[in-house]
Amino acid sequence: MGFVQRCAVAGRSILMVAAAGLALSACAPMYSATGVLLSGYAKDNVVPYVQASKDTDLATCGTALGQSQLLGSFSRVMDDPDYLMFYNSLLAGYCADGYAAEANLRYLRASQSGNVEEATDARIAEKRWHAVAARRRYTAYRHLVETYGRPGVGGCPDLDDESDQSTYLIGLVTVLQAVQSDLLSGSQVGIPRDLAVNAGRAAKCLDNDRWWGVPDAVQATVWSFVPGTTPEGKTPWQVFHKSAAQAKASGMRLALALYGIAAENQGRTDELQRAIAAAAAIRGDQAPSEYVLVDRLAVAQLRHLSDKLWTEAEGHRTPIDGLGQFPGESSSPKPDTKGLL
Amino acid sequence: MTRKYRLITGLAFALLALSQSAAAKPVQRSLCVFDIIGANGDVYQMMKDYAVAAQNWGVDFQLRPYTDEATAKADFQAGKCDAAAITGIRNREIVKFAGSLDMMAATPDYQAEHTAILAMSQPKAAKYMRDGPYETVGVINMGKVYLFAHSRKHLDSWKELAGQKVATISYDDQARTMVQHVGGAAVPASISSFATMFNNGSVDLCYAPAYAYSALELYKGLGDNGGILDYNLGILSAQVDIHWKRFPDGFGVKSRQWVANNLWDDAMRVIHKSEAKIPDKYWVNLSDEKAASYNRMFADVRQQLWKEGVYSHKMQFMLKKIRCREKPGNADCTKDTEGGPAGG
């Protein structure tokens, strides 16, 4: 091939490469625009839709796991969709927590029946899932921080918008759950323990009466976990009893879930039963419709605490429609059969 | 076969069946667990795993969380708990040999601590692990205790501690002795109050495991000028005690060996995660000469406590032997203190 011909071939190759590059680079703004569109759609429609959902499994293991990788990948072409990924991560955390709960019940059943190998295996499985839940919840916390700053450090963030307030509230609960999950995993993740105390401080940024007694319940939960944080002359139970009354009035049982967690942590079976009974007394879905999922997830948490009581006593979980009953109690009065035979 | 013979044979079989059934079913016993957090805490999680294993040795433990150690100890000694998990420091009042493991500055590192726990768990140590009606059946490493100071310059030499106020846990007589020895002022505190006292400036120094840096926000008390002495004041342990007559024969040895072989790694993971959280800027590293000065000071304090009979002499000398095997160059290894010379 002569010099001129070689130059022509090289020139055509260069042109082809440049054209391909131009075509591909034209896609980049499309990816970014698609990400913004999807992110905006998810925030305006998916999040409210899911929050109003009654199917906890679909919302947590379904929605969160299904859309997490797709939506998360847009962080490669645009600013991280923190608001959206916060919700995704916390729902994914609930999914892992659900698996940990099942392993926990398996461990309890195996322990009851003296099956040491099965109980040992179940404990390992439980701790693994708690570690997964802890990582996902910590990821949710990091997205919360990107949006609102570090909870409890410095002043309160700008929370004029109701959706910001509800997100912040759910975020504080998620922080407590992250620390708890890490503890239950055997500290595999290493989540900083001061996040819990900070969450308790940040709860003061929210109106306790507006948000169903949950901000005060967050603080009381911290008191029951961290030594030296309970104010003089107060007990967590005083706060939780008041939160229980607010739950009854609003139909939102999130404060009762925190009450149950705190009671179990302190070994107060009496208070735990009180929390569960209070939740069971709220029939059906009485929480505000746009937050039904939050209520349902709280009930799922309380049901697991009830399942543990039942499994330890009877070897099986709470009977169907039995939330609020405890081992040894009858669901309905037994008819009098004296003198019939 | 005569009727009488059939009756005896039948009775013998019935008794055999009953005894086999009784042997197969573990006995139920209560285990009261002190964990500063509660049922979600690190110690409690380890005790859940311990309880599973204990079924192999004929015991089905029912766990109860306690966040107040004094109550856990009192309930145990009152017989309300068949077993209890408490700190080594508290256990010195119950099983003196085992509880003396948490002696100040006696084990220089985790390797030495591991050696000590393994030694305590071997069958020939069994006679030392009982004290009256009680027996220690498990020892778990809970991490080094460090000295936190508002001003790092006070850590450079132990002589700088003179005149400083130190938050001192009320029942911790060894710490009180040390503070007084260096000329400091021991300010009574509890596990619930010491962090607040340090953070609000009521005291100049406090001592705590690495866990407290984040969980109790000790970084607030450290501020910009504070420091954490990178010197092991002592290693905390959690110890499981039982009323040994309530437990099957041989339970203690099996339990101690299982705990020593199975919970060490879990405990170290928790400890390493906590220690890794502390930023490098806070660590106050000592030169060899200054570390040797601290060693001499602690050796003097331990010798004083030896004379007062605060610790089990058996444990004190055992720890000296372990220490001197690891660091034979320590000055106290050739001295006739804490039971005698213990070179290499």
The level 1 CATH classification of the largest domain in chain B is: Alpha Beta
End-to-end separation of chain A in angstroms reads 115 Å
In terms of DSSP E residues, the strand content of chain A is under 5%
Low-confidence stretches of chain B: 19-23
So what's the oligomer here?
A: heterodimer
The residue-averaged pLDDT of chain B reads 92
Q: Give helix and strand order of chain A, one letter per element, not per position.
A: HHHHHHHHHHH
Radius of gyration of chain A: 25 Å
The main β sheet of chain B shows up as: 8 strands, mixed
Q: Main traits of this protein?
A:
heterodimer; A: 341 residues; mainly alpha; 2 domains; 11 helices; 0% strand; B: 344 residues; alpha/beta; D-Maltodextrin-Binding Protein, domain 2; eight-stranded mixed beta sheet; two-stranded parallel sheet; 10 strands; globular
SSE layout and pairing:
The complex is a heterodimer of chains A (341) and B (344).
Chain A: H1 3-51, H2 56-73, H3 82-112, H4 116-148, H5 162-184, H6 194-202, H7 214-225, H8 236-250, H9 254-265, H10 269-281, H11 292-314
Helix pairs in contact in A: 2-3, 3-4, 3-5, 3-11, 4-5, 5-6, 5-7, 6-7, 7-8, 7-9, 8-9, 8-10, 9-10, 9-11, 10-11
Chain B: H1 3-24, E1 27-34, H2 42-54, E2 59-66, H3 69-77, E3 83-87, H4 88-91, H5 96-99, H6 110-121, E4 130-131, E5 134-149, E6 165-169, H7 173-181, E7 185-189, H8 194-199, E8 205-209, H9 211-215, H10 218-222, E9 227-243, H11 251-262, H12 264-276, E10 283-284, H13 288-308, H14 313-326
Parallel strand pairs in B: 1-2, 1-3, 6-7, 9-10
Antiparallel strand pairs in B: 3-9, 4-5, 5-8, 5-9
Helix pairs in contact in B: 6-11
Write structural notes for this entry.
The complex is a heterodimer of chains A (341) and B (344). Chain A is built from eleven helices and no strands. Chain A has 341 residues and is mainly alpha-helical. Chain A folds into two domains: 42-206; 208-326. Chain A is globular and about 110 Å long. Chain B has 344 residues and is an alpha/beta fold. Chain B folds into two domains: 26-142 and 235-275, D-Maltodextrin-Binding Protein, domain 2; 145-234 and 281-324, Bacterial extracellular solute-binding protein, family 7 (D-Maltodextrin-Binding Protein, domain 2, 3-Layer(aba) Sandwich), CATH 3.40.190.170. Chain B is built from 14 helices and ten strands. Chain B has helices spanning 3-24, 42-54, 69-77, 88-91, 96-99, 110-121, 173-181, 194-199, 211-215, 218-222, 251-262, 264-276, 288-308, 313-326, and strands at residues 27-34, 59-66, 83-87, 130-131, 134-149, 165-169, 185-189, 205-209, 227-243, 283-284. In chain B, strands 1, 2, 3, 4, 5, 8, 9 and 10 form an eight-stranded mixed β-sheet that branches. A two-stranded parallel sheet of chain B has the order 6-7. In chain B, α6 runs antiparallel to α11. Chain B is globular and about 95 Å long. In chain B, 48% of the residues are buried. Residues 19-23 of chain B have low confidence and may be disordered. The interface between A and B is medium-sized, with 28 and 39 residues.
